[in-house]
């Protein structure tokens, strides 16, 4: 079982019309955040099926697939890792994590991060030193910053909120809209578990945080409370 076999399975499902739409949707045009990314035009449910079919792909072959120029091949590689990770022994979990963190230049769009960071990075670091995530949160690389905040989704599900709040604070004035959305999303998820805690953070920062971040964070609040935040009348 080798990575060209997986690549061929994806190429067999390629669709030029879907590829064109994906190229626009994921902002791969000149000057956009994913400039130069290439697409086959394979929908995510089909990629998931292929990832499950090739879930026993050896680690070096998964890594080769991750280094593909095609977006769908990179996502499929990450999906394979997310399916492998929960059933892996400690040695394999370490291999997957180390390979993931050493190759973040290929985890270079929001969907790639969102499908994987909280399923690999979050669980691996749960009981380990998290200094690398603080480094990522301060990184100049957009995707490393997103990996830092999205990895905390794992912790949120376990009602461990410190990392989410720390990274939300660090990223509060981030210049990129994709980070505003990610931080707002994680604050919203935190709020589903502990709304008073989310509100204690928001009350300190809602007047200065990016509007998109705020809108994402309060999306599930009652309408009257949402309006108070948006109108600055809390």
Question: What this model shows, in words?
Answer:
This protein is mainly α. The protein contains 16 helices and no strands. It has helices at residues 3-11, 16-25, 44-53, 59-66, 71-84, 90-102, 110-114, 117-124, 131-137, 142-151, 153-157, 162-170, 177-193, 195-205, 211-217, 223-231. The longest helix has 17 residues, at 177-193. The mean pLDDT is 97.
What layout of secondary structure does this protein have?
Layout: H1 3-11, H2 16-25, H3 44-53, H4 59-66, H5 71-84, H6 90-102, H7 110-114, H8 117-124, H9 131-137, H10 142-151, H11 153-157, H12 162-170, H13 177-193, H14 195-205, H15 211-217, H16 223-231
Helix content: 55-70%
Number of strands: 0
Termini distance? 58 Å
How many helices? 16
Order of helices and strands: HHHHHHHHHHHHHHHH
Structural class: mainly alpha
- Beta content: under 5%
How large is the radius of gyration? 19 Å
Low-confidence runs (pLDDT<50, min 5 residues)?
none
- Which whole number gives the mean pLDDT? 97
Shape, please?
globular
For the sheet with most strands, the description reads: none
